[in-house]
Design brief:
The structure is a single chain. By secondary structure, this protein is an alpha+beta fold. The protein folds into three domains: about 180 residues, Acetylcholine Binding Protein, Chain: A; about 120 residues, Neurotransmitter-gated ion-channel transmembrane domain (Methane Monooxygenase Hydroxylase, Chain G, domain 1, Up-down Bundle), CATH 1.20.58; about 60 residues, no CATH class. About 35% of the residues lie in helices and about 25% in strands. It is built from five helices and 17 strands. Strands 1, 2, 3, 5, 6, 7, 9 and 10 form an eight-stranded mixed beta sheet that branches. Strand 1 and strand 2 form a beta hairpin. It is found in: Cell membrane; Membrane. Keywords: Cell membrane, Ion channel, Ion transport, Membrane, Signal, Transmembrane, Transmembrane helix, Transport. Belongs to the ligand-gated ion channel (TC 1.A.9) family. InterPro entries: GABAA/Glycine_rcpt, Neur_chan_lig-bd, Neur_chan_lig-bd_sf, Neur_channel, Neuro-gated_channel_TM_sf, Neuro_actylchol_rec, Neurotrans-gated_channel_TM, Neurotransmitter_ion_chnl_CS.
Length: about 450
């Protein structure tokens, strides 16, 4: 029994010793690996002469001795496009700029996995001098540390990624605003290296430009991105490589219809109410006309407050000016109607007075007896009742259907029946025609306006 117990204890001690030795070896291996990686990075990035030769020079591009231009692969991951300004013709976005190139001087074989370098070691390696040609302002995110990633692969490939927020110029064509589609670009090029030293290409391993699917725009719908290699620009200092990506944006029309088009349309319709108001209601028609004109003018100023000062005519300008013309024409219509009404009243008085003078010369004394409409006993055509005589002024005239009796000193009492043919009221006719003409013209304008700008018929002609 004692022998068996001793054998069991020996086995347990042996197993424990093996475990301790294994742990020690693993620990020693990790420390050795850590020491090897640290030494490896220091040796790779060291610019001090080693063995009398220069090990690495971050001020010289890779492959300069062979004369072959180095190829830089670029990839973008857009996380947010947070501002698009028509007034300044610019847009702002945040993205990850990833660059990949091969530097044969940084190859290693002692370790098979990639090495992630510290962001402080960025100044120790050579990096392409890329810049944004249409940049207005920008910044590198440095909270909590500079947002940079530097990863080195055994074959000498370097992956350099940084998080940037930039504001870029965007040439917008606002001729069809707010029914327009815009194309904003990002142009990346080399500042100092010509095409003989450096070539920039979009990365083909993944999508050249990746867009965060959760991106939303308050005014636009994102329809796609088109990356391509732009033509080199020839200047006095040489030809430089560049790449470009186009962001396709389609403006949302719904908010503009609700807040601009519909209110202005209702104001135009409101101006037509004056065609149904009585001609004698001068204050009502004048107030309505002035109110609608001021409303349209205020709307037009508000629409263009956030727009750039451009010489071209926008679609919204055509709409607002047309609405102003219709409203102003409605106001002028009442001026025409008022003039016609006053002119017709004067002409009626003049004709009636002239007719009365032809019947009764001025040098004769005359009495005019007029039958009132309240009498039940009609007058016969030969005589007038004495109790119905009424003396009136010589300037008075009989109504169109009145019965008048004229008494002259040298002639017996004479009965005259005057009937004036009613004339057409030109002022009322203009109002009636306007009730049909103005809505019809506005409907024709809408039939031409909306297809022209929404479906862009001009491009199909």
């Amino acid at each position: 029994m004692r022998v068996n117990r001793r054998l069991h204890l020996g086995t347990v001690y042996f197993v424990i010793a093996c475990i301790l030795d294994t742990l020690a070896l693993i620990r020693h291996g990790r420390m050795g690996t850590s020491l090897q990686l640290s030494e490896l990075v220091e040796n790779l990035l060291s610019e001090d002469p080693v063995g009398g030769t220069q090990k690495y020079n971050s001020r010289v591009r890779p492959g300069i001795d062979s004369g072959v231009p180095i190829v830089v692969w670029v990839n973008l991951y857009v996380t947010e496009i947070y501002r698009i300004s028509e007034a300044n013709m610019e847009y702002s976005m945040t993205f990850y700029l990833r660059q990949r190139w091969v530097d044969e001087r940084l190859t290693y074989t002692a370790y098979n996995n990639p090495i992630t370098l510290n962001y402080n070691q960025f100044n120790k390696i050579w990096a392409p001098d890329l810049f944004f040609r249409n940049l207005k302002s920008g910044s590198l995110h440095e909270i909590t540390v500079p947002n940079r990633l530097i990863r080195l692969y055994p074959n000498g490939t370097l992956l350099f990624s940084q998080r940037l927020s930039v504001t870029l110029a965007c040439d917008m064509y606002l001729e069809r605003y707010p029914m327009d589609n815009q194309t904003c670009t990002i142009n990346i090029g080399s500042y100092a290296y010509t095409t003989e030293d450096l070539i920039i290409k979009w990365d083909t391993i993944k999508e050249p430009v990746e867009i965060n699917p959760k991106i939303t725009f308050p005014k636009f719908d994102f329809t796609g991105v088109i990356p391509y290699t732009c033509e080199v620009s020839y200047t006095s200092t040489g030809a430089y490589p560049c790449i470009e990506a186009q962001f396709k944006l389609e403006r949302r029309l719904k908010s503009y219809v609700l807040y601009i088009y519909l209110p202005s349309l209702l104001v135009v319709v409101l101006s037509w109410v004056s065609f149904w108001i009585d001609l004698q209601a001068v204050p009502a028609r004048i107030s309505l006309g002035i109110l609608t004109i001021l409303t349209i003018t205020t709307q037009s100023v508000g629409v263009n407050r956030n727009m750039p000062s451009v010489s071209l005519t926008k679609a919204i300008d055509v709409w607002m000016v047309s609405c102003l013309v219709f409203v102003f024409a409605s106001f002028l219509e009442y001026s025409v109607v008022n003039v016609l009404a006053r002119k017709q009243n004067k002409q009626t008085r003049r004709e009636s007075y002239t007719t009365l003078q032809d019947i009764h010369p001025r040098n004769e004394e005359k009495d005019i007896i007029q039958r009132k409409g309240s009498l039940s006993t009609p007058l016969d055509g030969d005589s007038c009742s004495t109790n119905l005589r009424q003396r009136v002024e010589a300037t008075s005239y009989c109504r169109p259907t009145a019965c008048c009796c004229v008494h002259h000193e040298e002639s017996p009492l004479t009965f005259i029946r005057t009937r004036h043919k009613p004339k057409r009221n030109n002022a009322l006719t203009v109002d009636i025609v306007s009730r049909i003409l103005f809505p019809l013209l506005f409907m024709v304008f809408n039939i031409l306006y909306w297809p022209l700008y929404v479906w862009n018929i001009r491009s199909m002609l």
